Amino acid sequence: MESGFSLLMSTSHYGHQNKTSGVGIIQYCHRPFSSIEEMDDDLMRRHNEAVSPQDTTVHIGDFSYYNKQETGKIIKKLNGDHIFLEGDHDRWLSSARQVWKKKIEDYFIVCCHWSMFSWPRAHYGSWCLYGHHHGRLQGPGKSMDVGVDTNNYFPYSLNEIKEIMKFKPENPGLVKKTFGKEI
């Protein structure tokens, strides 16, 4: 796999178990793990199978339910560099951005934990990558849920996303001509 910003994922939910009710992400999403420890270990293993030490992974929210110290221990076990966006359960982050935008190759990519109907440069064909919904919401146009629940608990590579986007419809409000020229 080529190095760079080539891996994107969301909604890992490391350590997400409600101590009061006993219900956590395993039950909520019917994840195939018998315990939080098993899930955490398997998520780390899958991450490290897909991510090289030279890669950067954009974690698009809900990375960890643990405190900052416990979350730091997980991050140290994961290959690559990391960019973290805020999600609903990222209390361990003291401050984080909610939106990350970057042109990668010929693609302008917008990442946010929550899906959007419209996003920066959507009318020019940009992509919106989100999580939060655990595969239960199909976004419009060139948007995609990149949560681990939608990819067998692995991060998505940029090449996988490019292949999927080929078959997605155009974005709502796509501008095909401007000032009389095809764009």
Number of helices: 4
Q: Which strand order spans the largest sheet, edge to edge or round the barrel?
A: 3-2-1-8
Give me the strand/helix succession: EHHEHEEEEEEHEE
- Low-confidence runs: none
Q: Biggest sheet, in brief?
A: 4 strands, mixed
CATH topology: Purple Acid Phosphatase, chain A, domain 2
Please name the fourth-level CATH homologous superfamily: Metallo-dependent phosphatases
What is the share of helical residues? 10-25%
Q: Which structural category fits the helices and strands?
A: alpha/beta
Strand content: 15-25%
N- and C-termini, Cα separation:
31 Å
In the residues, how many domains can be counted? 1
For the secondary structure, the number of strands is 10
Mean pLDDT: 89
Task: Give the CATH class.
Answer: Alpha Beta
CATH architecture, by name, is 4-Layer Sandwich
| Shape label | globular
The radius of gyration over CA amounts to 17 Å
